[in-house]
Each structure stands twice: as structure tokens, then as C-alpha cells.
Amino acid sequence: MSTSEDAVHGLVVAITGASSGIGEATARLLAARGARLVVAARRVDRLEVLADALRNDGAAAVAVTADVSRREDVQRMVDTALAEFGRLDVLVSNAGISAIGPLGDGDVAGWQAMIDVNLSGVLYGIASATPVFRRQGRGHFVTTVSTAGLKIVPDMGVYAATKNAVRTVMEALRQESTDGVIRTTSISPGFVNTELDGSITDPVLREQIRSSMDSFGLAPDAVARAIAFVIEQPHDVEIGDLTIRPTVQN
Ligand code: NDP
Questions:
Q1: With a 6 A CB cut-off, is 125 part of the ligand 1 pocket?
Q2: Which atom of ligand 1 is nearest the CA belonging to 209?
Q3: What pTM was estimated for this model as a whole?
Q4: Which among 192, 209, 213 is the best mutation to test ligand 1's pocket, defined by most ligand atoms within 8 Å of the CB?
Q5: CATH at 138
Q6: How many C-beta atoms surround the C-beta of residue 46 within 10 A?
Q7: Chain segment 135-149, per-residue pLDDT in tens
Q8: Residue 21 covered by a domain
Q9: Can you say how many angstroms the Cα of residue 242 is from the centroid of all Cα atoms in its chain?
């Protein structure tokens, strides 16, 4: 397929949580296929390195420092897409943290942080991008949820709850959008080898997750390819849910 025939070519895609892991891999893959990127996260140094690399490879890319738990930051990211590229085709709401631990630990601050980033961050994206998608007559919300919401296990209760709340919101949005303007997709990855363990404070739990990621976690690029797959479908084809896990994961 020549580049100009690629359905991803020319799309304007904003990605939250693009400074590492799945978000960064998705930005690199989509940029290589000719998408125009707005990459967002808090670590400006990492974002600038990424945006420079994408531009050096010939892509159009702009970095936005944004904390998705702040409504105005998410709005600024969407506004930047419009200012730089005149439109926004896809919002990949991928930023997330995993402050996991037993409920009995009562880590209220960690629970609130997960709600603020994993759930409110996605809601702010919907609030900011929906008017744009409606004006354009089309747009696509892609969110990174988790198999942790499909198979409930100890220590991941609040994390899974935030992910399943997003899944619920996406299904409601789908049902409210059957006029064909807005597509919604929830991607559920299993273990992926990223920096997500960095938000786990319990050292034993953190080591367990790190060890699973290292021994059988998917490369982030595998999830990036899944995201590209849902985006590249013709607009009348909506892949609502996609689960992607290591073959050996139970
Ligand atoms: P990483 O930790 O590598 O990436 C998380 C990204 O989210 C980083 O870019 C981080 O950037 C960003 N982020 C965190 N908090 C905020 C915030 N408040 N505002 C803006 N950006 C933020 O992990 P992954 O790539 O694995 O995580 C990506 C998504 O995939 C998450 O939603 C995660 O829950 C989900 N997921 C991951 C799985 C895994 O096994 N790795 C499995 C299932 C789902 P910065 O710190 O610079 O802000």
C-alpha cells in the first residue's frame, strides 16, 4: 500500500499519555503512517524528545504539556490540534496510572488519583472533543481500558473500577452517537511492558507486576498496532471493544 492509500495518512490524532509506553508507541506508529500528531503528557522533556524525533522523521507533530486531571489542560490539547492542524479526527485517551493495592490499605489518595486521571481525564476529553467531532461531522474516541476490568482480581479493585467506568461511558456514548458522527472504541490490553508499575507504591506488589511485565508483557507496539487497526477502518465500521493480551496470560 502506498502511503497516500493508507487510511491513517493525514488524520489528526491527539494522544494522552504519549510520553512513554503504549501512548508513545502509538504516536510513533501513527506518525510513520502519515498521521499528524498532538502528543500530550506531563513530562515535557520526554514529550519534546518524542515530538522532535517524529518531526525529524518527516511527520507533523506538536507536544502539549497536559495533566489530564485538569479540564483546562485537556481543552488546551484539543484547541492545539485545531490551531495547528485545523481539525481533530481521533482522540486516544490513554493516560493512566495504576496505584493498585488491597482495599484494606485505605489508600484514599491513590484511589482519588486513579479516578482523576483514568476516569475524569477521559470525561474531559469527551467534553472537549465532542463539539469538534460534531462540527466536523465525524470523529473517533479511543480509550485504553484494561483486562483488569474483565477479570476481577485482588489488589486491582479501584483501578479496574475506573477502567470499567470508562467502558460504561464509552458504551453510553456509542448509543448516543448512532447518527454515525462519532465512533467509540475501548481497547483492553493485558500485561504490557511499560512504566505503568511506577505508580505502585507497595514494593512487593510493584515487584510482582514488574516481574510479570518483564517476563511475558507485550511490547507496547503490539497495542499501538491494535489502535491503528481500529482507526484505519472505514468510518461506517466501528470496533467497539478490542482485547489484546499476551498469549500466555491467564
Ligand atoms: P506508562 O506509565 O508507560 O504510560 C502512562 C502514560 O500516562 C505516561 O505517558 C504518563 O505520562 C501519562 N500520565 C499519567 N498520569 C497523567 C496525567 N495526570 N496527565 C497526563 N498524562 C498522564 O504506562 P502504559 O503505557 O502501560 O499505560 C497507558 C495506558 O494503558 C494506561 O491507561 C494504563 O492504565 C493502560 N493499561 C496498561 C497496561 C499495562 O500492562 N501496561 C494494561 C492495561 C491497560 P506523564 O507521567 O509524563 O504524565
A1: no
A2: 40
A3: 0.98
A4: 192
A5: 3.40.50.720
A6: 16
A7: 999 999 999 999 999
A8: yes
A9: 13
